[in-house]
Amino acid sequence: MHSTALPAVQTALTFALVAWMITGFTPARGRWFRWRMFCRATFTIISLTGTTSDGRTEPLNVYDYLSPGSFILGLPQLQAILDHLTRSGRYERIDGASRVLSARGEQHVEVRDGHVVL
């Protein structure tokens, strides 16, 4: 009897662990993943348009202004990049819309005249 109990316990624990791991990848209400590992980071999906001094508009990729290998962009970093681009004279105006995924869930954010607006 003892020789069959150990494999049964191992099998039950394995199934419990797999079930727990699967639920970690299902979205919780207001969140995009359940595990804290995923909820600690802030990700920004953004579409921006920059207006130059001569009135031309062009798409703007803020990720070009992050250090190589960086892909996590929070709102303070986004505002710092927008400030840099407008103060340097590269763009007179920057507008756009984005979604921010963080521990607080998903937020819609707008960029108006170079300012991040929640």
Overview of the structural elements:
There is one protein chain. Helices cover 34% and strands 29% of the residues. The chain is built from 3 helices and 5 strands. The longest helix is centred in the first third of the chain and has 23 residues, at 2-24. The protein has 118 residues and is an alpha+beta fold. The protein has helices spanning 2-24, 36-39, 75-87, and strands at 43-51, 57-60, 93-102, 105-112, 115-117. The protein has a 5-stranded antiparallel β-sheet with strand order 2-1-3-4-5.
Tell me the overall shape.
rod-shaped
Strand order of the largest sheet: 2-1-3-4-5
Q: Write down the Rg.
A: 22 Å
Q: Considering DSSP H and I runs of 4 or more, what fraction of the residues is helical?
A: 25-40%
Low-confidence stretches: none
Question: How many β-strands, per DSSP?
Answer: 5
Features:
single chain; 29% strand; 3 helices; 118 residues; alpha+beta
